[in-house]
Amino acid sequence: MAYERRKKKSNPLNRILLWVSLIGLALIAIVTTVGRKEFGLSHRLTFEALGGTQVVFTRATQGVSGIWRHYLDLVGVSQENERLQQEIKRYVALNAEYREAVATNVRLSQLLDLKQNFDEPVLAAHVIGRDPALWFKTMTIDKGISAGVKKGMPVVTVEGVVGQVINVSPRYAKVLLATDPNSAIDAIIQSNRALGIIKGDGQGYRLDYVLKDSAVVKGDLIITSGMGGVFPKGLLIGQVVDVGNDKRGMFHTITVRPAVDFRELEYVTIILKASSLAD
Amino acid sequence: MKIILFLFLGVLFLALQTTVFQAFPEWMGVPDLLFLLIVFLALHCKPGTGAALTLLLSIGLEVFSGYFLGLYAVAYLLVFSIIKWMSARFALKEVHQQPALAALAYLFVNAFVYLSSLMLADVNPNLWGWGGILQRVLIVTILSIPVNRWLFSMMSWCDQGLRGRSFFRQKKGNQYKARV
Questions:
Q1: Does residue B62 fall inside a structural domain?
Q2: Residue B50, CB half-sphere, CA atoms under 13 Å: how many?
Q3: What radius of gyration do chain B's Cα atoms show?
Q4: Residue B146 to residue B132: CA distance in whole angstroms
Q5: Number of CB atoms found within 10 A of residue A195's CB
Q6: pTM for the whole thing?
Q7: Do B64 and A42 touch (CB under 8 A)?
Q8: How many structural domains comprise chain B?
Q9: Contact assignment for B64 to A132 by CB distance below 8 Å
Q10: Does A137 contact chain B (CB < 8 Å)?
Q11: Sequence-ordered list of residues with C-beta below 8 angstroms from that of A100, at least 6 positions apart, any chain
Q12: What is the residue range of B26's domain?
């Protein structure tokens, strides 16, 4: 009896069938997602689950860097005696807190100014993670569907354009940065009103489709044209740093330095406008 | 137990790569620990368990990275299968093979993701930069041996922990000896 049960258990055909079904299901799952841009249920669930981990790690990193900064502040301080050292530490910590409060105040004032510039409501969000890959430029923010964030909404700071929301889950959202090679924004050269399209090149921008008969010089400011329907008109994108002198072709080859320092981004503003990203 | 351990490590590595490591100066690069974990899984895990873990972790990665979905899942499963197939024929588990294996596999994954995103992009081609990729390959190569050893010790610790539990523990001594 027991021998028969064991024999039945180790039937290779059953195991092969089980594996074939599992592999088949996995392949179906993969094939249906390849090349898609929208999150499915599995991606949304994973995003929700892992977003919290990112929040913890980002806060921890900021805490550690804060401690490190305090330590650096104290390197030059003479250690006359224990009491004075404690006193200095206390004041330095207090000072850092005040500085942080002032910086927060300035940032919030700037956000308030920014908010007044737009007709649509805006929402501040904290950057909680960045894309670890070389080929893509995205970041994660701590606001999602529950805060009114939708796919396609523009993301900005007081310095200028940051990018667009591409994926959302109830509490988090993924933003495609304007420096990503898959990003394209309708732009205008402020000085001569020539139209073009800003495209990401991984590090900065390229301004494409500007005709050679329009005069472009180093230092020209590039702003959003408002024509794409995603970004409001007049937001700063960057500054021209190089104009290629290739004699072939109809268009200039223009390199633009972003107005925003993407590595230093901590907070961003989402413009809650009812427009969708072009798929 | 091992599955939970590796899943936990994968999530930890992913969180580190998207947060803490991003604060490193640019010249230091971002160590791809998740990739090294997947290479380890391909070398030391059973095919089914390893592939399932690889799929889960790659879905986790593509939630935070990239524009097109599914690329990492396909790339990592391909790398997993190739390493698994090769490890059955060659001595890939040897310590001195790890740096070359990690470097080649990392180049393969990046080339695959780059070319796939190039094909899927509407208008704008990606820009392959040798500087950045070689920096990442170098980091992965340097870290391959210590990370592999650390993961191996974690796996051994996990196995010992399981054996140490009363349920799994074997009774010592002569079991048939009459007690007086």
A1: yes
A2: 21
A3: 20
A4: 22
A5: 15
A6: 0.75
A7: no
A8: 1
A9: yes
A10: no
A11: none
A12: 2-153
**Domains of chain A and any CATH numbers:** 37-279 (2.40.10.350)
Q: What value of ipTM does the predicted structure carry?
A: 0.81
- Model confidence pLDDT, tens digit, residues A171-208: 999 999 999 988 999 999 988 889 999 999 888 899 98
Q: Are A181 and A175 in contact (CB under 8 A)?
A: no
User: Which tokens sit at B25?
Assistant: 């100066």
Per-residue pLDDT of chain B (180 residues; tens, 9 = 90+): 788 889 999 999 999 999 989 888 888 888 999 999 999 999 998 888 899 999 999 999 989 988 888 899 999 999 999 999 998 888 888 878 889 999 999 999 999 998 888 888 876 566 777 888 899 999 999 999 999 999 988 888 888 876 665 544 555 566 566 654
CB A236 within 8 A of CB A171: no
What CATH number corresponds to the domain at position B63?
A: 1.10.1760
Measured between beta carbons, the chain A residues lying within 8 angstroms of B55 are 26, 30
Backbone angles phi, psi at A80, to 5 degrees: -65, -50
Please answer whether residues A2 and B31 qualify as being in contact, where contact means their C-beta atoms are separated by less than 8 angstroms.
no
- Domain membership flag for residue B173: no
CB A18 within 8 A of CB B48: no
